[in-house]
Amino acid sequence: MTETKATPRRTTRPPKGMHVRRVFSTEGVHPYDEVTWERRDVIQKNWRTGETVFEQRGVEFPDFWSANASTIVTNKYFRGAMGSPNREDSLKTLVDRVVRTYVDSGLGNGYFASKDDAQVYAEELTWLLIHQYFSFNSPVWFNVGTSSKQQVSACFILSVDDSMESILNWYTEEGFIFKGGSGAGVNISRIRSSKELLSSGGTASGPVSFMRGADASAGTIKSGGATRRAAKMVVLDVDHPDIEEFVATKAREENKIRALRDAGFDMEIGGRDMASVQYQNANNSVRVSDAFMKAVEGGEKFGLTSRTHRGQVVETVDARGLFNKIAKAAWECADPGLQYDDTINAWHTDPNSGRINASNPCSEYMSLDNSSCNLASLNLLKFVGEDESFDVARFTRAVEIVITAMDISICFADFPTESIGATTRDYRQLGIGYANLGALLMAMGLGYDSQGGRNLAAAITSLMTGVAYRRSAELAGLVGPYKGYALNAEPHQVVMRKHRDANNDVHPLHRNDTAVLEAAKAEWDKVVELGAENGFRNAQASVLAPTGTIGFMMDCDTTGIEPDFSLVKFKKMVDGSSMQIVNQTVPRALANLGYSKDDADQIVAYIAEHGSVIDAPHLDKAHYEVFDCAMGERFIRPMGHVRMMAAVQPFLSGAISKTVNLPETATVEDIAEVYMQGWKLGLKALAVYRDNCKVGQPLSVEKTDNKSEEAAPEPEVRVEYRPRRQRLPKSRSARTTSFQVGGAGGYLTTGAYEDGRLGEIFLKLGKQGSTLAGAMDAFSIAISIGLQYGVPLESFVQKFANMKFEPAGMTDDSDIRIAQSIIDYIFRRLALDHLSFDERAELGIHTSAERARYVETGSYLSEEDEAELIDSETLKETAGDRIRVHEDGAAQPGLFDPAPAPEHVGGAHTSAELLEEKMGRAVDAPLCLTCGTKMRPSGSCYVCEGCGSTSGCS
């Protein structure tokens, strides 16, 4: 892409800028003229309420951009008031305002040798953006080129000292950052503990008490003035005297949430009563030292030290006991995470300017206090060539283009506070990263949790950061090193050599990682050489961010460093419909693994039917690992995630935004082991999430045999909340329905509470033997008791509707013409009789009258599509019959027939909801507050694949 040329430095003549040669764009042809553009209508609805939450018609995008990508960009990034002439309505307008600002600033600040070079650079940058090779972070698209402040950074680190003025300033600065749509992290360890005295003689409140004020502020301001919570990180050092109180804060509040929920209060996310619960607007992390972790290993004592008299031990605790309390709290509520202080600061390029004390909310950006970082992410799958090899040359050129643009942005950027602006301009921290790693590995036939997969990931990360720092050294030769470099030249160069040496420790296993590692080695050699000569333009270069919204903008299958979420997904169509598909990386993987097209087609069809590769025809069990995902029957084990993070960490300036998910059955000891291994494997930060820990039952009191009440320690009081059975009244209303399913008859009798709620069922089948009769009686009793203990009827309907077994077929019920089994019929009938319209609509269950009305009014499904949902003739028994056939007669494996949104079979609207149907159990993730669909994990937060909203990270 570029060739750097610098003249000798003179006091009267500045160095020449870059000469830019083309790699991606075509001379004489604008990038816009190389693609076909089309106009689309973007209409977003909340699937739960049916409300239209966003609408803009006639927006312009390349024809290869997905409906999802164009919807997210239109909704999130187009500027201007809706309906006004100033409203953006084309991707061209969006890209032009951003690229123009970058190029004009670069030209004005001496980055380009001539206007012609600047023009070539503009076209290269434009080509990469419209072809979805990379994306800047969201604040760039929000602000650059508009009348707003030119804020380009998404990640901020603040500081707070042990004074009321500083604490109140922390609240203020954090509030302004939240209002601007970004997040911030802070280490509160300088604040004296509640066990120390104030200068006036009173006892200090302690940092945890001041967290309440910051939490309330964040909950009020929210992020960007929107409905989602603010993105916020609070860190406390493990040797702070209030560490145990800090560790327990969110777990204690989680118990409160459960108690209030069981008492009837609205404690859902965004619920009106959630405001009474504290500490919910932040991620909490404990900053642990090597000394502490070694004390944990050795079962030794550890000293908690004074904040006012540094080094003075206030209290001595059992290190292993404290570590177990951290793991237990994380088991209960997912907080706190760990940040490994000595590892973080051992890779710090600017230690002479100050320590790294904190991180941004997602833990990937770690640098000096009062600093910021702007991010950009590359779409790795775009760099896989037709021969299925990783294109080192094009990847290298893309990194050069992107890292140059990121550095230019600091020349014109605005910042929320003067101190953040000064630190960022002095150290110029950047965060280039990538998305689609999981999809890349699967497409190449490599398991995510395999040595081959880890080696390729490490090699690509090493190459990316090596090229970024090499370009940084070249820019330093052109426009000068960062201001703080002179003070930190030696430690910065030491860290560069550590990166280079780590690259030599990666041993290639395949042709791809061999080629990438060789290129990375050459880049790191140049980094060390050029850095010694020129210095560096940037203190930091790379991180791995969540890439939630921008990942969807690039049509990525996977975000950040994450593996694929599941093998089956929903794909939104331009016409507003959607279809279920098997990940398109699966056929590529099968081809790379040597399967014939016929065998691959059958495997894909099987996955479409079952959502898993287990027992797929022709598939070698040794290849199962290639198709392991974050969720599903073969989910990647927790240490698989930790090992992948450890493989790439030595090649990042910052850290990795990722949460290690554990199954609901994981123990406190399992979490402690993950945290211990994260330290041993050299990670900088680690967060965990145990499925359903936010809604699971608390532990019951552990009984002990205390001989002497006087000598016994104060017991830990834990309340166990049990569901209470609400029995039906002695006399209650009942209803009996006769039915016929596939020639078999029976009777369904239901009993209800006085308010009409279903409370019991009885099933009687005709011509049944004593064994079947007993089974039906037991089944009826089990369902009835579940209803009386508060299990929602819709949960039973979701599990039992669509269950297939004989007898099945035609029924005598006009509302349910076809049933796939007697159980399928029973629960559909119960839904029609006892659930509201909205509840049934989510499950895709309607009366014949409702369906007729939809056809007449056009408000809901067409008659043809409705028939597709209820007519079992279109639901064939074999996976092969469920392959979509196009008009040309060619079969496209892995695609189910398109189903109109929102009423899909089973009511699924996103991949997370589809996976729930396939797995038969819930995916532990919140609902999107914008469009109502289930979100999925992305880094250390959640992202909605329907509208691009995130749960906290920008």
UniProtKB/TrEMBL annotation:
<dbReference type="InterPro" id="IPR024434">
    <property type="entry name" value="TSCPD_dom"/>
</dbReference>
<dbReference type="GO" id="GO:0000166">
    <property type="term" value="F:nucleotide binding"/>
</dbReference>
<comment type="function">
    <text>Catalyzes the reduction of ribonucleotides to deoxyribonucleotides. May function to provide a pool of deoxyribonucleotide precursors for DNA repair during oxygen limitation and/or for immediate growth after restoration of oxygen.</text>
</comment>
<feature type="domain" description="Ribonucleotide reductase class II vitamin B12-dependent N-terminal">
    <location>
        <begin position="41"/>
        <end position="132"/>
    </location>
</feature>
<keyword id="KW-1015">Disulfide bond</keyword>
<keyword id="KW-0547">Nucleotide-binding</keyword>
<dbReference type="InterPro" id="IPR000788">
    <property type="entry name" value="RNR_lg_C"/>
</dbReference>
<protein>
    <recommendedName>
        <fullName>Vitamin B12-dependent ribonucleotide reductase</fullName>
        <ecNumber>1.17.4.1</ecNumber>
    </recommendedName>
</protein>
<dbReference type="GO" id="GO:0004748">
    <property type="term" value="F:ribonucleoside-diphosphate reductase activity, thioredoxin disulfide as acceptor"/>
</dbReference>
<comment type="similarity">
    <text>Belongs to the ribonucleoside diphosphate reductase class-2 family.</text>
</comment>
<dbReference type="GO" id="GO:0071897">
    <property type="term" value="P:DNA biosynthetic process"/>
</dbReference>
<dbReference type="Pfam" id="PF12637">
    <property type="entry name" value="TSCPD"/>
</dbReference>
<feature type="domain" description="TSCPD">
    <location>
        <begin position="728"/>
        <end position="832"/>
    </location>
</feature>
<keyword id="KW-0846">Cobalamin</keyword>
<keyword id="KW-0170">Cobalt</keyword>
<dbReference type="Pfam" id="PF08471">
    <property type="entry name" value="Ribonuc_red_2_N"/>
</dbReference>
<dbReference type="GO" id="GO:0031419">
    <property type="term" value="F:cobalamin binding"/>
</dbReference>
<dbReference type="InterPro" id="IPR013678">
    <property type="entry name" value="RNR_2_N"/>
</dbReference>
<dbReference type="GO" id="GO:0050897">
    <property type="term" value="F:cobalt ion binding"/>
</dbReference>
<dbReference type="InterPro" id="IPR013344">
    <property type="entry name" value="RNR_NrdJ/NrdZ"/>
</dbReference>
<dbReference type="Pfam" id="PF02867">
    <property type="entry name" value="Ribonuc_red_lgC"/>
</dbReference>
<keyword id="KW-0560">Oxidoreductase</keyword>
<keyword id="KW-0237">DNA synthesis</keyword>
<feature type="domain" description="Ribonucleotide reductase large subunit C-terminal">
    <location>
        <begin position="153"/>
        <end position="689"/>
    </location>
</feature>
<dbReference type="InterPro" id="IPR050862">
    <property type="entry name" value="RdRp_reductase_class-2"/>
</dbReference>
